[in-house]
Amino acid sequence: MKKKILIVEDNRYEREGLASLLSEQNYDVDTVENGRFALDKLHETEFDLVVTDLMMPATDGLQFLHKLRSNGSSMPVLVITGNENMQNMLSAYQLGALDVIYKPFQFSELMDVIKRVIPV
């Protein structure tokens, strides 16, 4: 059975691009555009990993992580961000993020982290 990944990214092109590349790597991928929709999606479907952006409208990545952990979830979450703010990075780690990867990144860098957590 394919491992399931949820991508949370407000930029449509980045969201669709990541979904396409991860699908090619034999992952079952679903996407949403912000943390609020991600929380809704997680109530409907089980995922093996969430890949989330930090800066998004409505519910950003840190708010999403906080709400996820407040609900008792230990779901693995990988954060991607274009904002190299040290406080945001530390907050993401404190909320249980597996790793923080800065945009622009190499797809191989993302895959190295994903394969450590959920090998195909």
Automatic annotation (TrEMBL):
GO BP annotations listed: regulation of DNA-templated transcription
Pfam name, any one: Response_reg
Domain Response regulatory as annotated: residue spans: 4-118
GO molecular function (one): transcription cis-regulatory region binding
Keyword Transcription regulation: yes
Keyword hit for Transcription regulation: yes
SUPFAM superfamilies hit by this protein: CheY-like (SSF52172)
One GO CC term, this protein: protein-DNA complex
Keywords: DNA-binding, Phosphoprotein, Transcription, Transcription regulation, Two-component regulatory system
Residues modified as 4-aspartylphosphate: D53
Protein name: Response regulator
